[in-house]
Design brief:
single chain; 370 residues; alpha/beta; Rossmann fold; 2 domains; 4-stranded parallel beta sheet; 41% helix
Length: 370
């Protein structure tokens, strides 16, 4: 396909104390999250000065992309827009159109299939087009999911290997280490309906594509790490964090803190947490893992380490370039799991909005999905 601009598409975050509550209200609008829960979460941001690291990290990533992409033959302009904070999608879409762009490729800072990690962005981008009377005048396509792209996983493999090595050097045996791959929890129903309808029956219910993709990524990471140390296996599990919804709605479990307590009960001496569900160290990583999970481990007398996210690692920036070149020039798709490479286009009914149906960008014909 021919594209004339790239959009770095992200979640956003507050950049000052006065922005925290308005930001949280935007994030949770219509979801029935109790006010007291918003106030509790606001203290996490305020403890960090009221500033989420995510926007700074996106600026750094944007600069890295602008530096690296021309070396890969990608010379079209790159823009950045957010769902929940400035620069808002609506403003950036207008800016791109006014600059003469008519076909845009969006890369999203979410590697996995779910309503909040995929379809909601497509709803947001359609609304941005609608807000600016640009439906049919500006086309925005979205890059595929990249949970098993080698460039996304390599930085994780490198840092997990380093942390396991440090644990072993400290005298902790491999059998005493519990590795926890952490991702954002979502409602059970969102997990069950994640992924193309035609593929859902192949995933263990009620987790859907969301969990299947995370497990595939974790298995690839563990195979590489165990191979480095010549081990047949290391104990690991997938855990969840950062639940934010109504207490009456079931969300994916186990929570990372409950898993750490269970690890202690099972006689483990160390925990290494891998934030496999995140591409950068934003508040859910810095607060929920580096503070709360670390404190839980310390209270139980467990050694603790947290693996870095891909961030602006060179291999991750190259992975983004790979994903762009797949769509621009048909470059061969890179994927390491049996689930991949994930389709370019989302099927009708993929990761549905369970509250109400909204229009989205680029819905695919079901016959085009494997």
């Amino acid at each position: 396909m021919t594209y004339d601009a790239i959009l770095l598409t992200s979640f956003g975050g507050p950049e000052g104390p006065d922005e925290v509550m308005p930001y949280l209200e935007r994030v949770t609008a219509g979801r029935g999250v109790p006010r007291e829960r918003l106030e509790e979460v606001s203290h996490h941001y305020l403890a960090l000065g009221g500033v989420s690291p995510i926007n700074k990290q996106n600026r750094e990533l944007l600069e890295k992309m602008k530096q690296r992409f021309p070396e890969r033959g990608i010379t079209i302009p790159i823009y950045w827009g957010n769902r929940n904070s400035e620069p808002f999608f609506s403003d950036i879409v207008k800016q791109m159109y006014d600059a003469g762009h008519r076909r845009v490729l969006a890369w999203v800072t979410s590697a996995y299939s779910s309503y909040s990690g995929c379809r909601q962005y497509r709803e947001n981008l359609y609304q941005a087009l609608l807000d600016n009377d640009l439906v049919g005048k500006l086309v925005i396509d979205k890059v595929r999911h990249y949970f098993d792209h080698p460039g996304f996983l390599e930085p994780v493999i490198i840092d997990l290997t380093n942390n396991v090595s440090k644990m072993l050097a400290s005298g902790i045996s491999a059998e005493d280490i519990d590795i926890m791959f952490a991702t954002h929890s979502i409602p059970d129903a969102m997990g069950e309906t994640s992924g193309p309808p035609a593929l859902r029956s192949s995933f263990e219910q009620p987790r859907g594509a969301y969990e299947a993709q995370h497990l595939a990524a974790a298995e690839l990471v563990m195979a590489a790490v165990c191979g480095t140390f010549g081990l047949n296996s290391l104990q690991w599990q997938l855990v969840y964090q950062s639940r934010s919804g109504s207490p009456q709605v079931p969300w994916l479990e186990p929570d990372v803190n409950d898993a750490i307590r269970a690890s202690k009960h099972n006689g483990k001496k160390a925990v290494i947490v891998v934030p496999i569900g995140f591409v950068s160290d934003h508040v859910e990583v810095v607060w929920d893992l580096d503070n709360e999970a670390k404190e839980t481990a310390a209270e139980l007398g467990l050694a603790f380490a947290r693996v870095a996210t891909p961030g602006v690692h060179d291999t991750f920036v190259d992975a983004i370039a790979d994903l762009v070149l797949e769509r621009m020039v048909g470059e061969k798709k890179k994927s390491l799991s049996a689930l991949g490479p994930w389709p370019d286009a989302c099927a009708v009914g993929c990761c549905p909005n369970l509250r109400r149906e909204l229009p989205v960008i680029a819905e695919a014909d079901p016959s085009s999905i494997r």
